[in-house]
Design a protein that fits this description.
Number of strands: 15
Structural class: alpha+beta
Radius of gyration: 24 Å
Largest sheet: 5 strands, mixed
Shape: globular
Amino acid sequence: MSFIDSVYSDRRNHLAQAVGSGVILFMGSAEAPMNYPDNWYPFRQDSSFLYYWGHSIPGLAALLDADEGRHTLFADDPTVDDIIWSGAQPGAEALAAQAGATGVQPSAALADALRRLAASGRKVHFEPPYRRDTQARLEALLHLRTGSAGLHASGALVRAVIGQRSVKEAREVAEIEAALAVSYDMHVAAMRLARPGRYEREIAGHVEGIAIAGGGRLAFPCIFSRRGEILHNHTYNNRLASGDLVVHDSGASSPMQYASDITRTIPVSGRFSSRQRSIYECVLRAQLAAIDVMKPGVPFRDAHLIAARSIASDLKGLGLMRGDTDEAVAAGAHALFFPHGIGHMMGLDVHDLEGLGEDLVGYDDAVQRAGQFGLAYLRLGKALAPGYVITVEPGCYFVGALMDQWRAERRHEAFIDYDALDAWRDFGGVRIEDDVLVTAEGARVLGRPIPKTVSEVESACAS
């Protein structure tokens, strides 16, 4: 932990003021076993607990009294067994001091504290649990019926947390850029290593090793696949061949768990064919156009639609789409090729805050989620504000099953030339993604520039 204790107490004071009254319960994450109790997945602390208390240690909990200003951490001193198996660890008093807490109690005291609060009739606020074990702990502590914890989560707390965590402090932006420095090495290494005859798993394993060597881990499971039309493809069994395109979507997390999220598309032969280049530059133009319009007050949905119109216009030039471009995008015809949203919030979570409710994070009274295929997958549609960190990741894909379905349904025939599509059936996909900070004046791509133009990518592949 490198932030000073006042950072966490100041954040909690801001939260308490926003919530207004009552007591806020913070549930840290517990260890999660893979296949037997002592073989755990790599530990990842709950992001709100990290944000407000700063500790990445299993089994912690805390109470923040919004009325009386008490900040109580519930933690235990390490036992000798803990020290034998896991090494020397800070005691409960030290953990409380590092978090700027006003008091500390043993973990077992939490249940009694909550019973007293219930008896006094005071409101206990907590976030909706996204893990079943956390839900079970909440139900036991608060005497809720099984399966009910999420229904009793505090709307006031959720709104306050989203409002506060969405706007990144300068120290948080610095953490994201630290993660991006490692991601730069990951992506440049992948460009150098992607060669005919190698298996995807060889490069994916090397990329993950760079993330660990950089002091963190992967922020999410790496995507490295010649089947780039499969949006979330986490298998690495294919052998690369000359002429393949590989979509590489990965990002490191910083030692303080802040995420990065970058995508590049790599020609395995080292150079793009003319057809690959046409689609790659189509996606790149769309990304740059979207970033160019980003500034406070602009709905992010507008950036998505600008990218969609850019892609549709270029595909019309290639003979794959036809008709009026604006009408085609309004009808959703472009989503055959660009079926996902252009980006999402990013911070401590790679899809920041979505555990609290995607629509609560990405939409508001002014901008509601659309029901149209493609546009409905846009995770963030509302107006941008200074301090938001957002991924911008348009793509163009040729998904055989989707092409067949739409053609059989004669969907959007006025805008799509299905006969021309036959020659592109095995193309795969292209995606390009950067992490962008909304500033007071506009937007800034974060991190050291990772090769992105055709000439930059080809140069990196050749180095």
